[in-house]
Amino acid sequence: MKIITLKMRASFLLFVSVLIYLVLIFIGSSLSTLPIPQIISYQDKFEHFTEYFILGIILFLNYKLGVKINKIISVIILFSWPILDEFHQSFVPMRDVSAFDAMADYAGMIAAVLSLHFLFRQLKNDVK
User: Whole-structure pTM over 0.70, yes or no?
Assistant: First the structure.
């Protein structure tokens, strides 16, 4: 009988949270019209940034606290999901592919990963 450790459970939950969030992004990208009214200019870029900032947080935690396969999956998703999401939108009526949306996506993820990296490093230094 294999013993399931706390780290394995946490890794599984983190991985499931990544999958759930990716499904939510996919569902949002599948909508022809978005339910959020445009109030300010470049609001959609801010929305992309925020959506992917959250994904970056989840991926960072999945990478940092997960088992080896979680680390590999996190890196693959980090680099590929914005492009796959834009490609998917090319098949959705009334949606189009935008390199600027992908750049906002990458910016959000990179900002999250860097923020958490420095936060974790600072916390580690404070413990010493």
Answer: yes
